[in-house]
Amino acid sequence: MPTESRTAPGRRAAAPTWVPSAAGEWLGERRRRLVWLLQLRLLPSQTFRLWVGTGLVVCWVVVALTAPRWAPASALSVVIVLGGYFLRLRQLAMLLFLVTTALVYVVPRRNGLVPRGLGPDVVDAVQSSINPTVLGVLAAVAGVVVLIARSRERLGVHGAQGESMLVELRDRLRAQSRVSGLPAPWRLEHAVRSAYGDGFAGDFVLAHHRGRRLDVLLVDVSGKGTAAGTRALLLSGAYGGLVGALPTERLLPSANDYLLGQRWPEGFATAVHVSLDLATGEYAAASAGHPPLLRHRAGAPDRWVPVEVDGGPALGLLPDVDFPSVRGVLEPGDALILYTDGVVEAPGRDLAAGIDLLARAAGDLTSGPGLGGSARRLVDAVAAEDDDRSVVVLWRDPEPDPSHPSGRERDAS
């Protein structure tokens, strides 16, 4: 899945991992406006669209009989595809009937132009004929278009509407992971990758900042890629209303109750929730069957240690479950890493070995270039491509050294 990185205002942001660039956002907005213009303004009704398709078929018939070389039968495939894109199933059936009628009328007349002997016009005559292979291709295209139209008819949408609705829903839900106005010295970044490069993933991140409290919820839905993407979209919308609205100790139990109520046969998810007091640095972390957090302390630049959270089982398995939390304090220079099992699991590799690999990769960052852009670097460095994987990095910048020239200048300002 596309991914994202966010940093505190006033800091240099890492390269975004799913949020498009300004040019990408502009092009996406222009595309959505063009689709809206085509469907709601220029082609406002199904009847009008069917008349347009009819006009295209009639034009093909006229040109096919008067100038055969300029009207191959394959051109009708474009009409069929456009009909499947813009028409509902009933109107599409009418258009296909018109196309069939046009072919029944034109084919005998076109094929009658083929000479029975050799002559200088043989090539032109053969080009003007319509052979059974072309007709078979048109029939195959029509069959595929009908299947796609039937699928969209079940949703009550057609053309680009279904795509636009789904993309807009995904983008709106992803916006729930963005944190704005996070005060210095706190910084938060996250990155998500989907299995096999799919557009949807079973992992999602939710973040909520209000006042001095920051809540971060990382969820890994059972399954991977697009197969888990629909359930992840539904859960991210529902859980987005819970994050920040409930006390820390009630978030995971409420999320568990909601998932149980869905009665999905494959309905379980692992999750980790961190609630941070931005004023004091105190945090509480609760887990639902999730891998342990990684904790970094400022005094050990290259060392990250697992923080085992003796939480409850995965969400959606058992009712009336408690999810105990562990508490700690993030001092200046300290950091936490939240991640999903796709980051540390690999065929033939022990889970502990995967966690150690992630810890070493994080240590290389903290002892070298720093944590700016670390979520994107870590998810790309240690993750396999056959599973969804997510990394969230939350850290507190170290206090400036008053003895350092840059520290004195900052104090003076």
Automatic annotation (TrEMBL):
User: Transmembrane helix as a keyword?
Assistant: yes
Chain positions covered by the region annotation Disordered? 393-413
Cite a single Pfam family from the UniProt record. Answer: SpoIIE
Q: Which GO terms describe its molecular function?
A: phosphatase activity
Q: Which domain of life is it from?
A: Bacteria
Which UniProt key words apply to this protein?
A: Hydrolase, Membrane, Transmembrane, Transmembrane helix
Q: Where are the transmembrane segments?
A: 48-65, 92-108, 128-149
PPM-type phosphatase domain location, by residue?
Answer: 187-396
Q: Where is the composition biased (Basic and acidic residues)?
A: 396-413
* Protein name from the UniProt record: Serine/threonine-protein phosphatase
- What high-level taxonomic lineage is stated for the organism? Bacteria, Bacillati, Actinomycetota, Actinomycetes, Kineosporiales
